[in-house]
Amino acid sequence: MIKEGFDIAQAHLRHNCGSTRTATTITITKRPNNSSMRKYYQAALIITALVSVVSLLFYRHEYNKLRYVLEVISFFGKPGVKEPDVNRLGEIDISDDLHLHFDVPLPSWQRINNDLFVYAAYHANINEVRGIAFGKTYIIPDINCHVFIQGKEQHVLGIFKHSRISNLLKSQSRKNLEYAAYQFVCEYSQPAIPEGVSFFNKRDVSESEYPILSVQNLPHNLITNDIAICIAPPLNRSISRTDMMNFLSFHQMIGVDHFIVYDYGIPSIFTDTMKQIMNSQGLNVTFTVVPWNFPYTRISPGISGEIAERDCLYRTYNKVKYSITLYWEEYIVLKYHHTLAELLIDFEKGLLASDHYRLNSSLFCTQQEDYHPTGNTTLMIFKKTRKISEGSMKNRHVSISKPHKSWITDSIDIDSYISPGADLINVNRYQYCSNSENEMSYTHDRSISKFAENIINAPIFKQYMTRQSSISK
């Protein structure tokens, strides 16, 4: 019994524990292929590199924009608002110690004989005085010149030379014109500073009667990097004060620093008001009026414009970097830039770098019907958008020149100037057209309208309108 019970217990134990051991299951994880891993790493590196390059390009673009703005400010000063008493070339105080003196001494047409007059005289080269003259186109008579030296009572006999002033295209004939502009030169031997000069016909005038012109001694080095506009007598004598104000406000808004006006009879109340406005609010914009007592009537406006342009180059010599001569009816229109400084800096950096630029002009007839969708402004220049394809402006060119590069040039050859193209800058002239011009084909040009909103907030415009409103009350 005992043995039998032992056998039963042993059999039960074998049943529970099993006679064989269960095998342990081992899971083996397969490692990825090495070539697949390398592809993942390469993709990650390429993505990282692309992100880095894009970020670099973005920051470089922003850096160049900031650098460009800083160059504009340091080269021409901040447009519209300038720090008082700081010259753009450094720390020269031009407002107190170094006045530009565009009108000192005052010019005036002086009679040499019944058919020849001289306007102003300038000294820049050693032993040479230049004068601006006008008269009939016959051969200049036997003229002598005297130079009055600073600190000496006796005058010095000079050597007289002259040349024609012509700013027109070579293709235009000047043979049939009765009058012409001249450049007079008086050379003298003594190395001294001249105070006055006389040009005279010794056969007609005794030495005690000939007029003496004060000589403007010009700077030897460039004082500023500013831009000046000289305004020739208008094509239409009945130009309104509002139109003159609009001209000044518009061009100050695009970065012009100095205005030199040849006075054909502008009311003094207007010129005084403009001087007060431009000297206020820290604009540091100068407004200079010089006499224009022109001795002839019924002379082509083109000739008076030539005289004004040559006189402007001398009057601004080494005082500004660029000068432009316009009529009151003309507006410089920038297509992409907001200031002339930005445009000229771009020119100087690229292939268009030059001492002289020629701008094309377009004619807009003021009797044409208005184009109304130009914002909330009522100014004429924004409402007259019909550009005439031909007409009197076909051969009219406006030049932007460096005066300090123009002194050695006897005749301005506009054909040799660089033309930046009307897609960058153009000159719009607004005038009453002839019947034939008014009937010519036209296209709408609204490029000037981008300034419509800005001019309303321009300081000159706001100040002038405020003063006019107070006067009318």
UniProtKB/TrEMBL annotation:
One Pfam entry name: Glyco_transf_92
Membrane-spanning parts: 40-59
Subcellular location per the Swiss-Prot or TrEMBL entry: Membrane
Cytoplasm found in the keyword field: no
Signal sequence extent: none
EC number(s) per entry: 2.4.1.-
Keyword line: Glycosyltransferase, Membrane, Transferase, Transmembrane, Transmembrane helix
Entry similarity comment: Belongs to the glycosyltransferase 92 family.
Name of the protein described by the UniProt record: Glycosyltransferase family 92 protein
Species, as recorded: Neodiprion lecontei (Redheaded pine sawfly)
Gene name as annotated: LOC107224896
